[in-house]
């Protein structure tokens, strides 16, 4: 069940990572170190009680927030024998923030606040600055848990690397 990943697939993934790096499980090493350490055994995927981890390209684990919220229980880290997920070396579980895109309903004049209701950090506010208030996400509060992503009726909200978030 836990065959080692094909090195050529690893090289392919590394070659692509600059364009669209996937969301890795929490406390993952940076992408290159993660791919070096991870054996694609799938132990983290099997252990996650929220079922938010899946096997992605090359068999490597991916966090899919459309499946639910990461509760930061740490079970995936504990399951990772080669320590590709490592709380002692990675400070923040995720280096991402939620971003509402152009298809967000209030930006099209339709009232909606579904994402706010699911945020455990109360990071999403709807300031009364327009007739139909649009979401404002507090980067200091957002943990990248993904709870908001699956709640959006039009799939307008996603997790982006901090470096790529809009100013
Ligand atoms: S920290 Fe817990 S909920 Fe989050 S991905 Fe790991 S096992 Fe799943
Ligand atoms: S749930 Fe989606 S459409 Fe509604 S306010 Fe949030 S991001 Fe916009
Ligand atoms: S990712 Fe989590 S903490 Fe951030 S806005 Fe969404 S629900 Fe809130």
UniProtKB/TrEMBL annotation:
The protein's matches in Gene3D superfamilies, at most eight in alphabetical order, are given as:
3.30.70.20
Which CDD domains does its entry note? Answer: NapF_like
Where in the numbering of this chain does the 4Fe-4S ferredoxin-type domain appear? 25-58, 59-90, 133-162
Q: Which organism is it from?
A: Lysobacter stagni
Question: Which Pfam family, any one, appears in the UniProt record?
Answer: Fer4_9
By what name is this protein known?
Ferredoxin-type protein NapF
Keyword set, alphabetical order: 4Fe-4S, Iron, Iron-sulfur, Metal-binding, Repeat
Signal peptide segment:
none
Lineage, top-rank taxon, reads: Bacteria
